[in-house]
Design a protein that fits this description.
234 residues; 5-stranded mixed β-sheet; alpha+beta; 10 strands
Length: 234
Amino acid sequence: MRILPKLGMAAVAVAAVGLGATVPADAVTVTQVKGAQARLNALGCGSGPVDGQAGAMTQAATARFQSANALGQTGLLSGTTYSRLMASTAKRCDVRAVPRGSGSGRRIVISQTQNWLWLIDARGKVVRQGGIIDNPTYLKPGTYTSGSKCGRPARVLRNTDGGRLYLNHFVRFAPCGVGFHQIPTYQSNGAQIHPDWLLGTNYRASHGCIRVSASMSVTIWSFAAGATRVVVMR
């Protein structure tokens, strides 16, 4: 499984010390980090406790904010990110506009740049949206249709990776084994291989499928029960 660099205290140190002039001096104080965390939470970015510690969860929230606001996903409170975060024009993380050029009608839209997806009904209303983990190396932009591929079933309630993981509520939409599913869980104890708060960032990479939260996987399972268009965009 290819995994991108993990968030951790080393990255926090870079954010607090190594960036120097690119980070506002007051942005690295405990008070300013608390302010950034509160702002991230208010914008639906999911920073977690407002404790003044720019840990992994805060960095992931910052990456989600950056993706929603067309900034590079560094996860760091750089000058530009910090300024945009505190501005009145900052865009929310949890409610995003459907990308232009995704077509019309009932469909699921995936943005690989934003690490985000939208479920859209026949009237053009967004039924639900949320963060994903994907892998653009395997899944190319284009239009697909959910259903059976390569003689394999369209939906598998408890799929496996052939090893120690379950891929729950698996919904196939691209040849041959690419589909939506809950973040993989260990067969031994049911725990997810990574937390929900990494969804919507580029800090993990799947084998090619689209990982979503448990509740989102249930929603997609029902929404794409029949042939449903899936539009994948950069």
